[in-house]
Structures are given as C-alpha cells and as structure tokens.
C-alpha cells in the first residue's frame, strides 16, 4: 500500500495476560476486582530474600500459544532480569526472557479485504507484569496487585504494511488466545496490550526508516487510527526535510493524535542478564506433544471446515468462528437440526439480535443450542412454518422452554391436513367471490398473493404454506 | 574501563546521588574489581556454552493454586508512607 509514494513498515508487540489463577512466580491471586494490594505477598512486592517459583500453568499456556502460532518451542529457555528503576517494579528488575525466549519463528495468517495475509511471529517470551502507579503531582500511589501476573509478549516481524492489516493482526491474535482459553482478551482491563512500531520509507527503498513505538492503545480501532496518524506524521516530517527520532509516543484517543513520551536516546539501558534465582525452563517432547493434542481447532481451520464440510458461505463461516463459544453453539445446533445453513441463519440473525439487545453472551443464551436445533428440525419436518417459528423462537427466548412445549402451549402446530386447509380455502374463496371472479376472468392480475395472504390469515398463520399454494392453484383454475 | 562518567551513568540508572568525590572513589574501586574479571575473561572459552546455573537439576514448578498468607494491611504495614492500602512514593513523573 502506498501513502504519497511512501510505504509503512509496522511491527506489533502484544502483551497477552495469561489467565492463570495465580501469578507467574508466587501464589497471589490474579483476580481483577481485588481490593488495593490485596493480591500481594513478599515475593510480588520484592521483599529482600524472597525467591520466585515458576507457575506450571503459565508455562503450559505459553507453549500452547506458541504452538497455535506455529512457533518452535525452545527445549531450554531461561529467564533474564531486565533492570530498570521505577516504583511499579519493586525489585528494580522485571523477570523476562531475553536471548532465549520460549517460542520463536512462527506465523499467523488472516484475511484483510478478502486478501490473505501472513505475518511472521519473531518470538513470544514470558515475563511478569509490573504494578500500577497512579500519579497525583505531589506523590504517586502504587498498587502491586498486577505485579507478577504472567504475560506472554508476542512480537511480530516488521511485515505489516497498513493500519487495517495491523488491526486485523491484533484481532487475530486475540481470537487465537481466546480460542485457546489462555487469555480473556479483555482490552479495557488490560488483558491484551498492543504496542505498535511504525516507520515509513520511500516505496522501493530496501532500508527501513527510523521506527517509533506507540503505546497506550486499548482498542483495535485505535490501533488503526494511531498508526494512520503516525504514518502521516512521519511522512510530513520526512517531506519537510526533518528527521524521525526514535522514541516512544502515546496515543491520545481524545485528540486523535500521538505525542512524544520519552526519547529512546535517553539511555534505556536494561543491562539484561540471566536471573540466577531461576532454573532454566526445560520442556520435553512429551510435554509439547501433550499440549499439542489439547489444542482446540483454531478459528481459521474451523472456518474452512464450515465452508467445505457444511457448505456455508465464507461470510457465515467467518462470523460464526469469531468466538469459539459461537462456533461451538452453531455446531451443537446444526447437529440437532440436521441443517447447516438454517442453523447458521437462525444464529446469525435472530439469536445474535436478541443476544446483542440483551447484552448477553451466547453461553448465557436462554435458548440452548439443542433446543434451537430441534426447532429448526420441526420447520424442516413441516410441523411449523418458518413464520410461526419466529413466534416459537420468541417464546423460547422469553421462557427457555423447549420448542415442542411452546408450540403446544400456544397452539402453533402447522396445519398440514389437506381437508382442513381445503375447508379454510373454500371459506376464503366464498367470502371473496368478487375477487375470485376478477382473477378468473383475468380482469385484474397478480391476485394470487392476495388469496394466499387471506388463507394464511384465516388459519392464524398455521396452514402449511406449500399446501395452501397447491390447493389454491387447484381451486382457482 | 570504569571512568567517572560510567559511574555517573550507573548512578543515574539506579537513581542514586553520587558526589564528585564518591564517583572518583568508586571508579578506582570498580576498576580494580573489573580488572580481576578481565583476567578471567582472557581464558579461552571457545566452544564452551555459557553456564546459566551450576546444576542441571530438574526445575521445580508450582501448581496454579491461590494462597494468601498476608492481608493488604499486613503487606503495607511497614511502608514509610501510604494512603489506605496503597504504597505512597515520591512523584515519579
């Protein structure tokens, strides 16, 4: 993609907060709604003499994410100390991984504007989160509840070329970690944090421009907007004959712009070295195999399967697989319904609409997938019409009852008895003798629909529409 | 080599105040210590992997089970300054 003859080069670092119950190196809870400093212990506030002990779940989640991203898993990886002095980091260093990260050399594929795009994953390394500081001018207050929560930092290669690709890349990573159930993907609570590295260069220039890191982006829409702004700002600067300074900039969502936070020239000297308090993480082949077998089917593969095996349109397949819970719900429904496309339609239109307006997750849907599946089967069997099914659906949504119960309670069974329909048709025709005459003589055209409507109305919508058509055609000859 | 400028840089990273005289003194002391390591670094280590830990014992990993040994009040009880159960520190921005 070209911007005024320039090309953007974008790489993204995503901090994935692993949804373990306890912290990376101690047994403090990771609950989000705890009181101030309630989730702390001598280890997480950096008391002298304390020692870190690795959380096995954090290792498992990291490896699973690495496998899902097609990474090589390092059999022996080590923790390193990243030294910097800041009160949200009471030890004076963050435990991270440096030259030997647990996951390397993966890639992720997604579609942007109908085109497939693959972005390489340079590495994914484990580290601990820092505490949260709140500044008040005269002083700063610190809460260490977040200190030590396990993070997996997923670093992409500089392969992204547009803001739209960047946002889609981030969405895809979120989708994958949610499928794996290793992160809740909640951006507002900071469970997923994106830092974007952006540079520009003249089209065709093999050399990268100086990159700028943008932080503080808490939505995918802002990823797009912040990068868009930054590309334009950098091109303006270069065109003006200025130089891009390597720095960290923050996104200001209110003013729609980025602003300089600190210059990198000012010695971010982290002095990494292997943490002597921690043993190397040794991962065996059997562990990797076990985790690989536990991996769920990932969204892209699942969408492809829905297209090929269920003959769903690409659009349906992609919408149904955005969330694992939705895809699970769909498959459960389709199993009961025996009709893939109808299951997809009911979920994507009726169910999604109700869920959205009620602000509910699909897991909390009052209609269970097997119930919806049975309702669809009843339509296909001819027990209820598609139109009546909407009433049944509403009844199920309101009460959570089985479709059969709603149909019985409300007397909604479709009339498929030929004699009964004939009787209704006869009554309708008798009551509209003049219209029948107009139709037969051909004085007026397109009256057939009128009769269908009248019969359906007379049957309170319960007459089998196919049979009504057939009988009307016979009688109106 | 460790000169005064390096000392000042290290002091800044650690947010330590070091006087002119101290910087001079530390640079001499640290130069001595580093001189010793320089001798060690002259040993030929071609083909030797850097040692991270002296023993290759199996790492001990914890199960992911929550344990709370101290309340927030206890955890903050030694803080020189606090607000509620939050630690209070000098302004950092």
Task: Report the end-to-end length of chain A measured between terminal Cα atoms.
Answer: 64 Å
Largest beta sheet: strand ordering of chain B: 2-3
Oligomerization status of the protein chains:
heterodimer
Low-confidence residue ranges of chain B: none
Largest sheet of chain A: 9 strands, mixed
**Strand-residue fraction of chain A?**
15-25%
Task: Provide a count of the helices of chain B.
Answer: 3
Query: Within the CATH hierarchy, at the fold level, what is the topology of the domain at 4-41 in chain B?
Result: Histone, subunit A
Q: What CATH first level of the domain at 4-41 in chain B would be assigned?
A: Mainly Alpha
Residues in helices of chain A, as a percent range:
40-55%
- Most extensive interface, residues per chain? A-B, 50 and 38 residues
User: Please, how many helices of chain A?
Assistant: 15
- Count of the domains of chain A: 3
Low-confidence stretches of chain A: none
Q: Calculate the mean pLDDT score of chain A and round it.
A: 93
List keywords for this structure.
heterodimer; A: 477 residues; alpha+beta; Arc Repressor Mutant, subunit A; three-stranded antiparallel sheet; 21% strand; B: 93 residues; mainly alpha; Histone, subunit A; 3 helices; 3 strands
In short:
The complex is a heterodimer of chains A (477) and B (93). Chain A has 477 residues and is of the alpha+beta class.
Task: Describe it.
The complex is a heterodimer of chains A (477) and B (93). With 477 residues, chain A is an alpha+beta fold. Chain A has three domains: 6-287, no CATH class; 297-409, no CATH class; 418-475, Arc Repressor Mutant, subunit A (Orthogonal Bundle), CATH 1.10.10. Chain A is built from 15 helices and 17 strands. Chain A has helices at residues 56-68, 163-180, 220-239, 285-294, 299-309, 314-320, 324-337, 340-358, 369-381, 386-399, 403-410, 418-431, 433-441, 448-458, 465-475; strands at 6-17, 54-55, 72-73, 76-77, 80-83, 93-96, 103-112, 115-128, 132-135, 140-143, 150-156, 192-202, 212-217, 247-252, 257-263, 273-274, 281-282. In chain A, helix 7 (324-337) runs parallel beside helix 9. Chain A is elongated, with a radius of gyration of 30 Å. Chain B has 93 residues and is mainly α. Chain B has a domain at 4-41: Histone, subunit A, CATH 1.10.20. Chain B is 40% helix and 9% strand. Chain B has helices at 4-13, 20-41, 72-76; strands at residues 61-62, 82-83, 86-89. In chain B, strands 2-3 form a two-stranded antiparallel ribbon. In chain B, helix 1 (4-13) crosses helix 2 (20-41). The two termini of chain B are 33 Å apart. The chains are: A alpha+beta (477), B mainly alpha (93). At the A-B interface, strand 2, helix 1, strand 9, strand 10 and strand 17 of A face helix 1, strand 1, helix 3 and strand 3 of B. Strand 2 (54-55) of chain A pairs parallel with strand 1 (61-62) of chain B, so a sheet runs across the interface.
């Amino acid at each position: 993609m070209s911007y005024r003859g320039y090309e953007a080069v974008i790489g993204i670092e995503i901090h994935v907060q692993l949804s373990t119950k306890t912290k990376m190196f101690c047994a403090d809870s990771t609950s989000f709604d705890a009181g101030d400093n309630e989730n702390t212990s001598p280890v997480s506030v950096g008391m002298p003499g304390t020692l870190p002990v690795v959380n096995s779940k954090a290792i498992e989640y990291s490896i699973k994410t690495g496998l899902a991203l097609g990474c090589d898993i390092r059999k022996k990886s080590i923790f390193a100390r990243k030294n910097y002095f800041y009160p949200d980091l009471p030890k004076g260093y963050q435990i991270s991984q440096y030259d030997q990260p647990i996951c390397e050399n993966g890639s992720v594929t997604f579609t942007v504007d109908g085109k497939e795009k693959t972005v390489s994953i340079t590495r994914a390394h484990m580290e601990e989160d820092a505490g949260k500081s709140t500044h008040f001018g005269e002083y700063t207050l610190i809460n260490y509840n977040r200190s030590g929560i396990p993070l997996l930092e997923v670093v992409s290669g500089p392969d992204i070329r547009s803001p739209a690709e960047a946002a889609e890349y981030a969405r895809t990573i979120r989708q994958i970690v949610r499928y794996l159930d290793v992160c809740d993907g909640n951006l507002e609570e900071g469970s997923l944090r994106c830092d974007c590295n952006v540079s520009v260069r003249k089209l065709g220039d093999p050399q990268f421009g100086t990159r700028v890191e943008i932080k503080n982006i808490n939505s995918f829409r802002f990823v797009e907007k912040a990068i868009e702004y930054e590309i334009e700002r950098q091109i303006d600067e270069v065109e003006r004959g200025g130089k891009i300074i390597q720095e960290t900039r923050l996104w200001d969502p209110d003013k729609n712009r980025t602003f300089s936070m600190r210059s990198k020239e000012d010695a971010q000297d982290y002095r990494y070295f292997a943490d002597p308090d921690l043993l190397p993480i040794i991962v065996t082949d059997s562990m990797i195999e076990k985790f690989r077998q536990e991996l769920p089917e990932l969204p892209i593969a699942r969408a492809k399967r829905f297209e090929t095996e269920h003959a769903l349109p690409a659009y349906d397949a992609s919408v149904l697989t955005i969330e694992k819970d939705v895809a699970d719900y769909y498959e459960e429904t389709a199993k009961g319904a025996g009709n893939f496309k109808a299951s997809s339609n009911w979920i994507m239109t009726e169910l999604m609409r109700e869920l959205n307006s009620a602000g509910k997750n699909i897991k909390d849907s009052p209609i269970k997938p097997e119930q919806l599946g049975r309702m669809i089967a009843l339509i296909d069997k001819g027990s209820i019409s598609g139109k009546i099914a909407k009433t049944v659906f509403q009844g199920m949504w309101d009460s959570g009852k089985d479709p059969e119960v709603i149909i019985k309670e409300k007397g909604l069974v479709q009339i498929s008895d030929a004699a009964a329909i004939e009787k209704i048709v006869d009554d309708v025709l008798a009551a509209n003798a003049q219209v029948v005459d107009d139709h037969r003589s051909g004085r007026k055209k397109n009256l057939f629909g009128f009769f269908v409507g009248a019969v359906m109305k007379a049957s309170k919508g319960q007459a089998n529409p196919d049979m009504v058509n057939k009988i009307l055609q016979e009688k109106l000859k | 080599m460790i000169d005064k400028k390096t000392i000042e840089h290290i002091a800044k990273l650690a947010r330590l105040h070091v006087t002119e005289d101290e910087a001079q003194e530390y640079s001499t002391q640290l130069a001595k210590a580093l001189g010793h390591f320089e001798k060690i670094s002259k040993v030929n280590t071609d083909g030797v992997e850097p040692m991270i830990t002296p023993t290759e014992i199996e790492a001990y990993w914890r199960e992911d089970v929550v344990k709370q040994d101290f309340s927030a009040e206890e955890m903050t009880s030694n803080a020189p300054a606090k607000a509620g159960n939050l630690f209070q520190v000098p302004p950092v921005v």
